[in-house]
Fold each of these.
Amino acid sequence: MDSSRLEVLISADDISRRVAEMGLRIGADYPASEPLLLVGVLKGAWIFLADLARAIPRSVSIDFLSTSSYGKERTSSGEVKLVRDLDESIEGKHVLLVEDIVDTGITLSYLMRVLGQRQPASLRIATFLDKPSRRREGVDIAYRGFEVPDKFVVGYGLDFASKYRNLKDLCALHEGGSQDRCP
Ligand code: IMP
Ligand code: MG
């Protein structure tokens, strides 16, 4: 039986307002005449990427990659592997890496290194969440949705052991209790 408890940290309405603002800002920052490629980090960034892409009032293209996941652990092993690479070359393109959360920073500093070697015209990070209290490697975040405290969070694409990705609100997952539903 699942004995986890969920607490709403950021409501769906607040998320949608913030993502709309981010989209407008990104749209204004990149020259409309130059192609912009959004690179989603699977699986966590899928909902954020879908909403963000529609909030950017210009044409964009989309690609995905995925890195090794935490599995059933709540903390990173410190090792990252590229499990699925991009379909297309990023050489000469403006690339915006779209991530669900920057926690230790290990995943994104690895991805910035790997993608940076492929000669993109520019390479920046847009993250839905930033959990700076646990940072181990510095990353330069160009666009940040929300800062979150040192809690394990789920919903709006983020999971624990493959569950909770489809919650509309962002919730903190607590051990114990009997509630398995975001109120
Ligand atoms: P980092 O390498 O420690 O920065 O973490 C990268 C990945 O860990 C994120 O892309 C998430 O997929 C996952 N992650 C980190 N913190 C959380 C959390 O609180 N909830 C769900 N996933 C998390
Ligand atoms: Mg992720």
Amino acid sequence: MKTAMKTIQAIAVSPGIAIGRVMQVRGNSRFQEPELVRILPEDAEKEVGRFHTAIANAKSQLAELQKEVRQKLNTTGADIFEAHLLLLEDKTLTAEVEKGIRSGLYASEYAVFLAVEKFAAVFGAMKDEYLRERATDIRDVASRIMDCLGNIRREGISIEDRRIIIANNLTPSETAKLNPKNVLGFASETGSITSHTAIIARSMQLPAVVGIPAELTETLTADDKVIIDGYSGKLIINPDERTEEAYRLRSRAAGKLLSQLAQEKSLRSETTDGFCCQLAVNLDSMEKLDEVERSGADGIGLFRTEFLFMNRNGLPDEEEQLGIYKKLLVANGDAPVIVRTLDVGGDKFDSVIYRNNEQNPFLGLRGIRLCLHERQDLFRTQLRALLRAGVSGNLYVMIPMVSSVREVVTTKELIAELQEELKAEGREFISHLNFGIMVETPAAAVMADRIAPLVDFFSIGTNDLLQYTMAIDRSNERVAYLYRPSHPAILELIRMTVEAARKNNIFVSVCGQMAADPFLVPLLLGLGVDELSVPPSAVPIIRRTIRSLALSEAEEMTRQALLCSNASDSLELSSRLLQKSAPEIAGMQMAVTE
Ligand code: PEP
Ligand code: MG
């Protein structure tokens, strides 16, 4: 019997709306424990040879798949399989399998299973979501080796008519093989926004959600109809007629708007009265580097460097960092790239760097505090690498968590000392480093007039500015209701920061999540910021938002908003202006956030 209409809140990983009948995919990434088969000691070398033949076959299959994906999708999709090829060549993994065959006298299948589970467990236990997701990639590669050992050739999931896949897990290979003509979208139990399956889904423009309850993969049948809302993360089971119709309309409007927005890539983010607001992107790894170009953004407004230091054995030396920063700068040509120095602490900690045994880590040795006090060694290496990389592009460097003038002065002294050091060593480096700070503590905003003469720019980190101003742990959902960027205290701190910047002729960017919310963009423009830096996916919407607004109207509205006593009233004013200037954006976002 068909279940009644039910809405499940899952996690949105690929935007878009899909409506259709269900197709169940069970079997959990094909990678299952094989039968334990032992071999005789005299057969060990022959077995090692069988394993290597399987590796060679898996490699040629992957190269083929990579070619197919490159033609069908884009380089990001294809690069994922480059990483899979590297895994096949990983010496530690092969050595572990060979050990299992030679010492454990296991048949290749079981030796592969043991080695892969060991590796996947290491990744699976990592704190970083991105690295944790790599466990899925390892299992995906392993099932390919298993198939090659058994001479099984899989053709991918076959789907006859247009269906929505409900799966416990989809591997990147399975996803890349899906035929978008037959598959409308998918919902899976496992996965995350950074999983390669999600990345491929986005490249294929397949609406997708993850994190659905396990029982759904058992209870839903081919007769059930579902809606996947890849904007808000909803999965609606057996929608009633009204809901389905509403989603069809929404899907048409959103789809039309998004394809229009994609055409606007080369248009300037300029208001109707001629103010050019820089529109940059936030990146937190090298993974999405090609999305900067694809989005048509004016450069990188925040490059978080934590990924370089965390969840790894050992720390990156100067040469490794130099290589990465150079690549980042070269890829961006003349466009400005703002790199933020290490911001470990708060909820981002790692035992290699320091032991997190503080009672209140968000109020502890975080960001610049750690870099200047306990780990100046790391900071020096990072700054040296940045000074050297600076000759390759348009580099800006900023420090996080500033709360005093002293931190700025000490960092500048350190930079001057390192420049002397590099000069004495006869190395190439930049003699003027564009240097700025993140304004993300109330202290930095209040002291902006005294810090501005010392720096080249400010970047307002509204995520932390809210946390520290409102005294709410940004990761505590119980106080999330107080997380309101339009709160008068936040608007006032931004106003003070902009005023100090203007007086000292330096620019102000906003790189917190507030900049990516179209309902708040009128306020930020009205407050006088020069740049908005947002995740790559938000660039088209924010560009259109800026292009629809008149700066003079935003300023007038903001003057009123600054007099409001609470967050709702100022948000109401800003939303009204968005609704009037860009009703299509306001309408689409309603659908997304409701
Ligand atoms: C911020 O605090 O707004 C910010 C952009 O930095 P992060 O989210 O990395 O703390
Ligand atoms: Mg921050």
